[in-house]
Every structure is written in C-alpha cells, then in structure tokens.
Amino acid sequence: MTQATPHIQPNGVPIAKTVLMPGDPLRAKYIADNYLEDVQQFNEVRNMFGYTGTYKGKQISVMGSGMGMPSIGIYSYELYNFFDVDTIIRVGSCGALQDDINLYDIIIAQAASTNSSYVDQFNIPGHYSPIADFHLITEAQRHADALGATTHVGNVLSSDTFYNADETFNTQWKRMGILGIEMESAALYLNATFAGKKALGIFTVSDHIFRDEATTAEERQNAFTQMMEIALETAE
Q1: pLDDT tens, 214-236?
Q2: Structure confidence at residue 29 (pLDDT)
Q3: Binding-site sequence positions for phosphate
Q4: One of 24, 133, 207, 212 is an active-site residue; which one?
Q5: Closest Cα partner for 87 from 226, 223, 14, 195?
Q6: What domains lie within the chain, and their CATH numbers?
Q7: Site annotation (Important for catalytic activity): which residues (predicted)?
Q8: Is residue 207 annotated as a catalytic residue, yes or no?
Q9: pTM score, two decimals?
Q10: Annotated binding site
Q11: pLDDT in tens, 111-154
Q12: Taking a C-beta distance cutoff of 8 angstroms, is the pair 201, 156 a contact?
C-alpha cells in the first residue's frame, strides 16, 4: 500500500476498502459530519477532502472527486491501485433527459456512455461499454426500494462538455434512451474494470435538461439524503 501520492496524502489515517465519491469535497464533508462516526480526515491536498469513519459498524471512506473525467480518473486510479480500495460508489447530481424523470429522483447508472476519449488509452479494438458492478446495482436498488425512493436504472452519459456548441446534442442522447447527463462515471467504470475492482454511480436528479427545473447549489450539497443513504447502505 502506498503511503502517499501527489494527490492523496493520508498521513497514517486508514482508507477503507469502500469509498464514496461525491464530486464536491464539501459534500464529502457533509456525509462525514452527518453519517459517519469516529471520523478522521485522510486528505486535504488541493482541498479535495477525504474522511474515514464507520457507518453502522462498517469502515467507510468518503472523498471528493472534483469535476470531470480527468479529475475522477486520477483519484479513482490512485485509490484502486495505490491504496488497495476495492469499491468506489460515486454519489452525484445529474441532469435528466427523459420525460418520466423528475427532480430528486434517483438514477442508478447501469452503464456510462461518453463523448470522452478517456477509453482510448486502453487500446481496445472496438467500442467498449463501461458498466457498473452488477452486485452493487442490485444492492443499491434493494436499499432504494426499502427507503421508498423513486429510481431509474439504465444508461447515463458522462460528458466532457457542460456547455455544448451542438444544439442537437441533448436530443440525440435522449433518443438513445440516456437517462441523464453527468461528467465522471465512464472514467470511474473504466478504471475499476482495468484494475479488477468495483464501481457504481448513484445520482440525484438536480435539474431537467428539457424543462425549466433545477435545484439550488445548497440543495445539491446538503439535501440529497436519499442518495447518500442508499450508497452508505450499499457499501460493502
């Protein structure tokens, strides 16, 4: 196990086998403050806060990933390959595309399509589909049902572009059945597969791409409790 990397410096604090990864480091702090016991901070490099504690007796870590595939690509790679992490569950927000999805619904990302070239580094002779771990998907759905959450399981889009010059972009992905758009999961799923590890993305719908509906920044940071609880219960 590596003691430190340029991006993660635990200073002797353990990192659990399962890590929850919100994009926002303040959401990581919120989860640690409100759900974990016996919390220790294991990272503050670049203000990408990471914490380890216990949830119902299970050791769990939570750490911010930053925005976009290059950022989560670095952190997830190091956690899987240098810190012996087995499972990463991304907990984030996404913009809904389909008409039957509403604000605060939960999307469980079975797969992550992408317009990114992140996959090119693996020299795969074809078009690889980044997918989540099936056991994590079924466990997340089971815990979501127990909480009474409204869930949608399927394909999301991990996009490299937040502002896209192509005005047909969202419509084309909607037609292909994409549930929502976020910016990280494809890289996470690819890193997990390549390392022989597990990954899952769970999202709260923060806005609707085709309707004038959106949550506030404070709500995105603090109010997505169902998603957090599903991820914590799913953590192995």
Answers
A1: 988 777 766 689 999 999 999 98
A2: 97
A3: 23, 27, 46, 90-93
A4: 207
A5: 195
A6: 18-234 (3.40.50.1580)
A7: 220
A8: yes
A9: 0.96
A10: 7, 23, 27, 46, 90-93, 182-184, 206-207
A11: 999 999 999 999 999 999 999 999 999 999 999 999 999 999 99
A12: yes
